[in-house]
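Comment thread on ticket #2218

A.B. wrote:
> Attaching the input chain for the structure job we discussed in standup.
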Amino acid sequence: MTDDFCEVIITADDADWLAEYTRRLVTDRLAACGHITAPIRSIYRWDGQVQDDTEARVALHTRSSLVPAIIDRTNAEHSYDVPCVIALPISQGNPAYLDWIAASTREQ
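C.D. wrote:
> Ran it. Output below, let me know if you need it in another format.
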């Protein structure tokens, strides 16, 4: 059953936007919850230069089957040209918590 669930990481340069975006994903049952961490420091290469910026990060708990919808929506609504959206499988977890994720999200 745990193969059905994952944690989706998304970053953004605006913590308030990320919080509202997370709220919309939860409202629309694409994610059961989102844990936001801000600020984070991101060091990365973009346009041939090493960047060092402050961002916010959300860890969404959801069904693996909903990841494509989250990716599509993030690409459509995010301000970045190439937003970070990665999904990490949940290999084990509290069965009651995993049941809650299932009950709180829609089936794809």
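A.B. wrote:
> Thanks. Noting for the ticket: Residues 30 and 105 are 6 Å apart (CA to CA).
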